[in-house]
Amino acid sequence: MELKAGGEVPGSIHLTNGQEAIAVGVASVLRPDDYVTATYRGHGWAIARGSDLSALFAEVMARSGGINGGRAGSPYFSDASVNFLGENSIVGAGVPIAAGAALSARRHGRGQVSIAAIGDGATNQGAVHEALNLAAVLALPLVLIVENNVYSEMVRIADMTRVDRLAVRADGYGIPGVTIDGNDPGVVAAAVAAAVERARRGEGPTMIEAMTQRLVGHHSGDAQHYRPRGEVAEAALDEPLHRIRSAADAALSAELDAVDAAVADEIARAVEAARATDLPDPSTAKDHVYA
């Protein structure tokens, strides 16, 4: 957001602040060759999977040294080096992509699993229904992670569905569905590990609804006027990092301080490395474009 305010990032940004425990918990139980597909709020997923931070910043800053040469920016990048199949701004479109990867994994017999992360509102999309139905019928190794952060853009998910928990929709596909605390990486890891092992055994998909809240707007220009007064402040008391800090003793607090300092230094160095790369050459604008 600081880079955006300084004019170094074009377009809008969709941050994952408050939702980090989901990607971290999921990534902790995956193999390097497993696939991950995310939404346009995918920076945390790419970092958790091991994307190079300098190249990631360069991509967001539209620099030639970016993961995709500055062509994808903040909401569209992918990183084949870590099997991150990418972000997608079409709501729910990542699920059929992830189902395709799961079909490929099954046919090649490599035991890979495909993870699809979507927001709560995407569960209302037809493409999600079709992909889940196909994945269920074919028993594909797909795990669907629904990041339920309460809001579908600017509308509460409670005003858009008649069910209290989105995971019950899994019943319609004949697959397991579970709702978990998405702010606890240990809980996330345990639930996903069970779903991943089930998928590797050839038993098909699982839907995991991870409850969380975002601490920022839907996008970088969202003032969040639709959120009740005090809601964000309350959510900040339950987000993953605050939970760890509030429960830490003196020794752990010191360790966390050291981690924070190391991360701040890593981010500063990554930003400077990104700034040092050139802007894309306009003559290459048609590269990788096919008719």
The proportion of strand residues reads 5-15%
What is the oligomeric state here? single chain
- Which sequence of strands runs across the widest sheet? 2-1-3-4-8-7
Q: Main sheet, how many strands, which sense, barrel? A: 6 strands, parallel
Write down the Rg: 19 Å
Distance between termini? Answer: 36 Å
Number of helix segments? 11
Structural class: alpha/beta
Notes on the protein architecture:
By secondary structure, the protein is an alpha/beta fold. The protein has helices at 2-5, 20-27, 43-49, 53-60, 73-76, 94-108, 126-137, 185-200, 231-236, 240-247, 250-275; strands spanning 35-37, 84-86, 114-119, 142-148, 151-152, 155-156, 177-181, 206-211. The chain has a six-stranded parallel beta sheet, sandwiched between helices. Helix 4 packs across helix 11. The longest helix is centred in the last third of the chain and has 26 residues, at 250-275.
